[in-house]
Amino acid sequence: MADRLSEAAPAKVNLYLHVTGRRDDGYHLLDSLVVFPGVGDTLSGVSADALSLELRGPFAAGLAHEPDNLVLRAARSLASTAGVASGAALTLDKYLPVASGIAGGSADAAATLRLLCRLWQLPTTDKLFQLAAQLGADVPVCLAGEPARMGGIGERLERAPGLPNGGLLLVNPGVAVATAGVFGALRGYWSAPAILPPGWADMATMAADLSRLQNDLQPAALHLQPLIGEVLAALQATPGCLLARMSGSGASCFGLYVDAATACTAAEALPDPHWWRWAGPLQHGSDFTQPVPRPIQTTGGA
What we know:
By secondary structure, the protein is α+β, with helices and mostly antiparallel strands. It is 29% helix and 25% strand.
């Protein structure tokens, strides 16, 4: 039996998201600061004669009826671009809610590209990032997998300001929000790109600066799915919450805290036990290679 490789596909969280314009082709221009906490999906694979995908995990059912999800699309695109004739038997353990504003599908596609480059012994050149951009706006930053500032339609990446150690709580109320619908509901003027410092010494200072920015998609998403407002209010009411905001196009929201322990305490204080949640450090470490932990449960189980 050949060795099975695995890749973590961490969630992507938008600490702020400004929509700065729209191109003639309809794509919106963005300015956003993103981080990757230690929760996400896990992709594994082994060499095979053809490409195949097995779906597992608590949110696998949400992808079961997709005829060609991003994992297989990424695999086929890489094989075609690199001229690879062999295949791979892939397994996706789906721990992130689907259509939830934390780039689960994009993270899975990026993990596919990284894993198959290892499996097929391909170099990771700039062409790989060009391929990632063709798969989706969030795939390039997920391919890098490091805190970054995104620009353009997602293809322009800059190093993030220095981030402090701190805690983050992610919450999803169990409703899907279509990204296209949120962008279609946008009303108002375009925002200017943010002016950011070189870094932040502590979470309180960072949260104060971020509070002067916004997620421009949040009002439109709230109009389409008012339950997001309940989640934000619940996060704001948790002890020690420095900032509560929606991520991406929703419906996932996050709270920032001084440390991971405070974030975990806040997770237990949320009012609805059916909401998916995860709490931990603001960003995962360089050793994030193990299977991702399941969401925290407020009643029973681990």
